[in-house]
Specification:
Length: about 200
Amino acid sequence: KNWFVVGSSQSSYFKLSTGCSAIMFGDSTAIGIDELAFYADVHADTVAYKLTWNDLDKADHNTANVNGIASFNKYPEILFKVNDARVIINDTLWTVNSDNYIKIDTSSIIVHNFRISGNKQGMLANGAISVDPLDKLTLTFDNFNISHLDLFLNSKGVDFDGFLSGKVDVTGIYDVPNFVTDIVIDEFCFNKEKLG
């Protein structure tokens, strides 16, 4: 709703702003975001970006301010980094640690120390996805409240509750995907029925 795009350039510099007053993902019971905006400053081989939203008229406080860079100076390798991220979803503040990056090239995706945390819980991604069957991506969960999935599943009549801790190793994504898990879900409930 009310989408805008504004761009300007000067010699080797380009600025882009785009966004909308509201956007819905899925049907009317799905997730919506108000005051969504994306800003990009392009100079030489680097893009500095900023992503924001602000659900000003909602009972639940939902905002975001995420900024970082995308570097193309070693193309075809592309480096993405989140410099700062402060995202509030249903009044819980989530941050991304500053020592992170994601490298994408023609044969692999490398994720380094990408940790999302908030309210004494978190998720960390480290490792690589490639054609090499020995490369692995490890997802580590620390007391992660799986009821956050309700944002995506409630419209389907599904409700999960509990706290996920442990790790998942993923290998062979391009050939035969393999998942090795060592996880525990404390206080697990499905549709309000306690199962563990």
